Amino acid sequence: MIGEIDIFGVFVPAVLVLMLVAYLLNIVIRAVLTRVGFYRFVWHRSIFDLGIYVLVLGAVVVLSHRFMT
C-alpha cells in the first residue's frame, strides 16, 4: 500500500481515504440495520456501531491491499 494519494495536487494519507470509504459503507450498513429493526436487539447502539465500523475498516484495508498488489 502506498503512503499517500494525490487528489487534485493535494497529497492525503491513504489511511484517510480508506477510513472515508469505510465510513460511507458504515452509513449504508447502519441504515439497513435501522430499517430492518435490528437495533431492538442491541444493548448499546454506539458501541455496536463502533464495532461495525472497525470491522468494515479492517475489511476495506485488507481488500485494498489485495487489489493493489
Automatic annotation (TrEMBL):
The chain crosses the membrane at residues 7-29, 41-63. Pfam families: DUF1656 (PF07869). Keywords: Cell membrane, Membrane, Transmembrane, Transmembrane helix. It comes from the Bacteria. This is Membrane protein.
